[in-house]
Description:
The structure holds two protein chains of two kinds.
Chain A: E1 4-11, E2 14-22, H1 27-34, E3 53-56, E4 59-62, E5 75-77, H2 90-97, H3 107-120, H4 126-132, H5 144-159
Parallel strand pairs in A: 1-5
Antiparallel strand pairs in A: 1-2, 3-4, 3-5
Helix pairs in contact in A: 2-5
Chain B: E1 2-4, H1 9-18, E2 23-25, H2 31-36, E3 44-47, E4 57-59, E5 63-67, H3 72-76, H4 78-83, H5 85-92, H6 97-100, H7 105-111, H8 119-124, E6 128-133, E7 136-141, H9 142-145, E8 146-148, E9 151-152, E10 159-166, E11 172-177, E12 188-195, E13 198-204, E14 211-212, H10 214-221, H11 231-242, H12 253-272
Parallel strand pairs in B: 1-3, 2-3
Antiparallel strand pairs in B: 4-5, 5-10, 6-7, 6-10, 8-9, 11-12, 12-13, 13-14
Helix pairs in contact in B: 11-12
Amino acid sequence: MSGHQNYTLNVNGTEHPVKDAWIGESLLYVLRERLGLPGSKGACEQGECGSCTVVIDGSAVCSCLVMAATAVDSQIATIEGLAEDGTLTDVQEAFITEGAVQCGFCTPGLVMAVHHLLESNDNPDEMTVKEALSGNICRCTGYGRIFAAVDAVIAQRQAGK
Amino acid sequence: MTVFIPRSLQEATDLIAEHPDAHLLTGGTDLMVEVNFNHRRPEKVISLGKIEELHQVTINDDHVIIGAAVPYAQMEKGELGESLPALAEAARTVGSPQIRAAGSLGGNLGTCSPAGDSLPVLSATNSLVHLTSAGGTRMVPFSEFMIGPKRNSRQPHEIITAVTVPRTCGWQGYAKVGTRNAMVISVASACVVFHDDELRIALGSVGPTIIRCTDTENWYQSLASKKSTGVSLEIGSRASQESRPIDDHRSTADYRRHAIKVLAQRLFERGMSK
């Protein structure tokens, strides 16, 4: 069919063939609907809410704004890659223990953004954390519990050094 | 619809020569919104994000060359941010961290929205847009590049490859007004550049193109005493008079005129106090 193409995406270290996909499909759509990876959430489809945040080649981006067919030869990391063996990461644990999850819709995007922040900066100050999460909208929590979870992870990681 | 992913500039210029009707894609933050909402269904796309040449940055003493695919995140800080303070401030106001990791000058120039955050800076710094085709590269001053709302002088067989931003001797700054801090499309924006004894002011989101306030600039140039009281107020109202805003879904013309008055005055005062 015209306008359709086969390509391969590397997601969480695994090569995933994408067959006969319309080229205009976003990475978010392909992850959710074609590759069975529905952890990244779709809400605004215009890069405003951050619930579809994934990390591509080391940059946190909105997967709804990535044309999937252009993400070949890139390393794509999604929320599904964080606890592949069933053990939650420290960020995921902290979101639970600090009560940072209410409806949960924004959580995968926020967890990806927090991991991305802490990989490049292991002791960010309050403004840096707020800035790093400014592209992720949560309409339940008011952000207090989310920032508390980030603080808890920072404290744990600093104590464990 | 076909997606081409050239790996070199040569490959890209060959592709666009063959497919001048193709839509050029860099970060995707403009095009994909239109595709997601079924406003646009491009038949051919040339994705420029994986071309090494478009990611290069060269910092010289008198100018900086920024590759068209360099993301805003890179302009916010570091050596590049420090060399071009107004561009760093403008980059910092673009979208969210996720958008700044993807968006680039190439995309802002290609879309050429009057609300494009980097564009007032490129105007006030007298930047040059590099347009490359199979036949070579031509450099176009920003003032001749943007010719209308979402219209520019790029020819169908050309690719925006880089921007030369001259460095200036003096303070420069950028400010914008929107409804919140993150993720906001500007309602009004301004860039003020002092270069030796010259003043330059460019306005965004208040006209069909970026507006250079040449009357205000010339008025300032003619002043005998540039530091006298009342100059900053006059700068604000003159810049506001040069704006040509409209009412739209984002704001009103009246409010935009007011915002420009405040922004231009405030930026001018910031510059004078340094």
